[in-house]
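TL;DR need structure tokens for one chain.
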Amino acid sequence: MTTTPSPIDDELIEYPEYRPYILGVVERCGSPPAICYDYSAVIDHLTRDIGDRDSAVEYFEFNVIGAYVGPHTPYFLDRSMAAALRGGASGADGEGADS
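>> reply
TL;DR here they are.
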């Protein structure tokens, strides 16, 4: 299995195999824009490819999260902590009742 980022324009870098899991583009003062992917969806994708979740997470953390590919390195949004950060209960989709 190969996870290779590729430029999609002069700035943004994408992982083509994770295109269905794009959430949007992240921007912050002082940093260039970068694509943001759904962390859980990518892990589910890798679990199907690799066969077990622990190996998928290990692969992802080392080969994807651990790879800096320049200032436009993609982000991966992990929604599992969203409810705790908001201080409320969470539904199955990570959205609280007050969102």
